[in-house]
Amino acid sequence: MSDYDEQLDARGLSCPLPILKAKKRLYELGAGQVLCVLADDPGSVKDFHAFSRQTGNELIKFEELDDHYLFVLRKNAS
Q1: DSSP string of 5-68?
Q2: Sorting pLDDT into bands at 50, 70 and 90, what band is 77?
Q3: Domains contained in the chain, CATH given
Q4: pLDDT tens, 14-57?
Q5: CA 30 – CA 28 distance, rounded (Å)
Q6: 15 catalytic, yes or no?
Q7: Is the pTM of this model over 0.85?
Q8: How, if at all, do strands 58-64 and 34-39 pair?
Q9: Of the residues 15, 17, 59, 60, which is catalytic?
Q10: Euclidean distance between CA atoms 76 and 30, whole angstroms
Protein backbone atom coordinates (compact mmCIF):
# COMPACT_ATOMS: atom_id res chain seq x y z
CA MET A 1 0.00 0.00 0.00
CA SER A 2 1.24 3.48 -0.87
CA ASP A 3 1.18 6.59 1.28
CA TYR A 4 -0.90 8.51 -1.27
CA ASP A 5 -4.21 8.26 -3.11
CA GLU A 6 -3.09 9.47 -6.55
CA GLN A 7 0.20 9.93 -8.38
CA LEU A 8 0.95 12.53 -11.05
CA ASP A 9 4.04 12.16 -13.21
CA ALA A 10 4.93 15.67 -14.40
CA ARG A 11 8.50 14.82 -15.38
CA GLY A 12 9.50 16.41 -18.67
CA LEU A 13 7.08 19.31 -18.20
CA SER A 14 8.26 22.87 -17.72
CA CYS A 15 6.78 25.36 -15.30
CA PRO A 16 4.01 26.19 -14.84
CA LEU A 17 2.62 22.88 -16.15
CA PRO A 18 3.56 20.67 -13.15
CA ILE A 19 1.77 22.97 -10.71
CA LEU A 20 -1.23 23.46 -13.00
CA LYS A 21 -1.67 19.72 -13.48
CA ALA A 22 -1.29 19.14 -9.73
CA LYS A 23 -3.88 21.84 -9.00
CA LYS A 24 -6.35 20.17 -11.38
CA ARG A 25 -5.73 16.71 -9.88
CA LEU A 26 -6.10 18.03 -6.31
CA TYR A 27 -9.42 19.61 -7.29
CA GLU A 28 -10.66 16.14 -8.26
CA LEU A 29 -9.61 14.59 -4.92
CA GLY A 30 -11.61 14.64 -1.72
CA ALA A 31 -10.59 16.60 1.37
CA GLY A 32 -7.71 14.91 3.17
CA GLN A 33 -6.67 12.78 0.21
CA VAL A 34 -3.00 12.74 -0.76
CA LEU A 35 -1.39 13.43 -4.13
CA CYS A 36 2.18 12.42 -5.00
CA VAL A 37 3.78 14.51 -7.77
CA LEU A 38 6.99 13.66 -9.62
CA ALA A 39 8.64 16.60 -11.41
CA ASP A 40 12.06 17.36 -12.81
CA ASP A 41 11.82 21.10 -13.50
CA PRO A 42 14.02 22.91 -10.91
CA GLY A 43 11.46 25.73 -10.79
CA SER A 44 8.87 23.34 -9.43
CA VAL A 45 10.60 23.29 -6.03
CA LYS A 46 9.82 26.94 -5.37
CA ASP A 47 6.43 26.65 -7.06
CA PHE A 48 5.15 23.73 -4.96
CA HIS A 49 6.27 25.32 -1.69
CA ALA A 50 4.51 28.59 -2.64
CA PHE A 51 1.43 26.70 -3.85
CA SER A 52 1.16 24.92 -0.52
CA ARG A 53 1.40 28.16 1.47
CA GLN A 54 -1.09 30.00 -0.75
CA THR A 55 -3.74 27.27 -1.01
CA GLY A 56 -3.55 25.58 2.38
CA ASN A 57 -2.86 22.21 0.75
CA GLU A 58 -0.26 20.69 3.06
CA LEU A 59 3.11 19.77 1.56
CA ILE A 60 3.69 16.74 3.75
CA LYS A 61 6.82 15.54 1.97
CA PHE A 62 9.45 16.96 -0.36
CA GLU A 63 12.36 14.90 -1.55
CA GLU A 64 15.14 15.65 -4.03
CA LEU A 65 16.02 12.41 -5.77
CA ASP A 66 18.78 11.67 -8.31
CA ASP A 67 16.97 12.93 -11.39
CA HIS A 68 13.67 14.39 -10.15
CA TYR A 69 11.76 15.81 -7.22
CA LEU A 70 8.96 14.19 -5.24
CA PHE A 71 6.19 16.27 -3.68
CA VAL A 72 3.43 14.81 -1.52
CA LEU A 73 0.45 17.09 -0.90
CA ARG A 74 -2.62 16.59 1.30
CA LYS A 75 -5.74 18.35 0.03
CA ASN A 76 -7.12 20.85 2.50
CA ALA A 77 -10.60 20.52 3.94
CA SER A 78 -12.10 23.55 2.23
Answers
A1: SEEEE-TTPPTTHHHHHHHHHHHHSPTT-EEEEEE--THHHHHHHHHHHHH--EEEEEEE-SS-
A2: confident
A3: 6-74 (3.30.110.40)
A4: 989 999 999 999 999 999 999 999 999 999 999 999 999 999 99
A5: 7
A6: yes
A7: yes
A8: unpaired
A9: 15
A10: 9
